[in-house]
Amino acid sequence: MIDQSMLNQTWAVVSRLIIKHPAFNEAYQLLKEAYLFNQQTGLTKNYWVVGPTGTGKTTLMDMLVKEFPPVERVDRKSIPVLAINIPALPTIKNLAEEMLVQLGDPIFYRGSAIDKTIRILHLIKVCNVRLILFDEMQHFVDRGHKRAPAEVADWLKTLIDKAQVSTVIMGLERTQIILDANEQLRRRFCRRIDLKPFDLECPTSRSHFLGVIKRIDEALAMLSPLDLQQDGIVRQLHFATNGTMDYMVKLMLGAYQIATNRHLPGIDRQCLEQAFSDSIWVEGVGKMNPFHPQFIGQRLDQRGMVFYKAPMLEVIRSQEKKL
């Protein structure tokens, strides 16, 4: 009989697992140094963190907040790291309101955009903020109106100049459109950190990819570990996850549940095949499934496939068509 409680606990542990591979560690240290630099000198270091969905951008932000958490003082609240998630349907107004909410302003909804910006700048000083992180910046490109990238670029440039704290913007590659809308803002974010998917063609990256798979498998703690010496299994795992951390976790968790339901001692190819179509791509069956004998043997990144990424030119043209 399946111990559902144990299965759920294992699932929760692996879902929260933070695997600090070298590229992730390097990114974290740079952002931590930006915080300390502002704290110790009053000067700023700004970074643009770029990476596909699931490569660890939000995890970086969460770790920084955890290391430098808010502290309740007698007369105020200290917020060393101000973490802001860009609203799904972003405007300058609701972004400013989100910042005011995180800064503890009880009347965040009152006032014009200018009034809100003035209050934000005041509270940044009162709360002793040393680092601001904006996550999901591409929302201004994807879901904002036609002028949104230029408007947020102008607003951000003014805000970071007056706030004088280190600032990090995080997002997909198309966040470039926002930076391109304001040359002065682009210069302030010339330091770029890339969080890339693992690449099997690079020996170092391949080693890190295997290390992450092993770490997830160890955390699942099944009787038989996943046999990574099987012919072609490493490339199949890469095809199935595109080398992206989030998909690696999803695939392994899905395979773990299937193996447990089948009372197997460990994860096998059949578990991985079903987990891919159940947890990653519902259309990933037959020759479109990396673990199927008739798999097409190429990356699933063409239009209509699970890992397709629209070219930058296509994104720009889409932005130009907005009303």
TrEMBL record:
SUPFAM superfamilies referenced in this protein's UniProt entry, alphabetically: P-loop containing nucleoside triphosphate hydrolases
Domain AAA+ ATPase: 43-199
Highest taxon listed in the record's lineage: Bacteria
Pfam annotation, one family: TniB
Protein name: TniB family protein
